[in-house]
Structure formats: C-alpha cells, structure tokens
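User: Please predict the structure of the protein below. I'd like the answer in structure-token form so I can feed it into my own downstream comparison script.

Assistant: Understood. Taking the following sequence of 164 residues as input:
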Amino acid sequence: MKKLFLIASVLLAACVVSCKKETPVEDAVTLKSAASVTVPVTGDVVSISFNSTVAWKATSSESWLTVSPASGEAGDATVKASALKNDTYDARTAEVTITAGTKTAKVTVTQGQTDAVIVKETSFEVPADGGEVNIPVSANVEVKVTIPEAIDWVHMTPPNKGLV
C-alpha cells in the first residue's frame, strides 16, 4: 500500500509540475540609443541599440534609409540604419520602427539638405544713365550680398520679398 501511495504521490507531483501554467513573457522593446539622430548630408550609418523581450522586426519609413538586420530574436540587439547622400535642396526625416510583438519603439533620423544658392543670370547690362536691375536668386541658406567699396556706382536696395 505504501508503494501505491508513493507512486500516486510521484505521479501527482509530476502532473502538478507539468501542468503548471507558464507566465507569458510580456512584449517590450526598450531603446538604449537616443530617440533621434542626425546624419550628415553625405550619408552615413548609425547604430540603434535596444533590448527586446520577444522576437523583433525593424523597418524604415523612407527608401533613402535602409535598416539591417530587419529582424532578430529577443535580447540585446543593434541595427544599422544607412542613409544615402541627400542630393536634394530640402532636409528630410525618416523613422526607424522596432516592433516587438505588440510594442514599438521609434527613432527619428534627420538629414540636412544640400545647400544651394542659384543665380540663373550672371551678367546684366545697365543703360549709361543708370537704372535698376533685379537679380533673381534662389537659395535654401542665408544669402549675403557684398559690393566692394571701390565700386561706388552700384548700390543695393533690400529685396522686396523673401527668398525662395
């Protein structure tokens, strides 16, 4: 009888241990890097470090910024965000999103513009009795016009509208 009781106790204990509900791992992703970074106009690679409690995926919101690797397992991880050179005259922004189960973390990547000052015409004629010449300038940076002191017959008036 003692043997039967001992066997029943062992089986009951085994059932209790094997039937014990496992506590599910809660989805979480925690950034170890800054939530925003700036890359140079010439392009660059930045590292984004984080910790995830479950398998994760990384994506970029813009085609000029690629992310590698695109996925991984739970634990500490680092992805590389590679920005192409910005040949445009506008700054741009993209987001890298790390998704771990139902949780997400986002890193904003900003890249400056290619600076430009564009003067389409570089030569102007003024009648002998004088006159006014408008010089159209397009720029995405501050423009400073300098007239050498030795040239006293040219004067600048302030622009009548902002630069585009």
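That's the full token string. The helical segments are 2-19.
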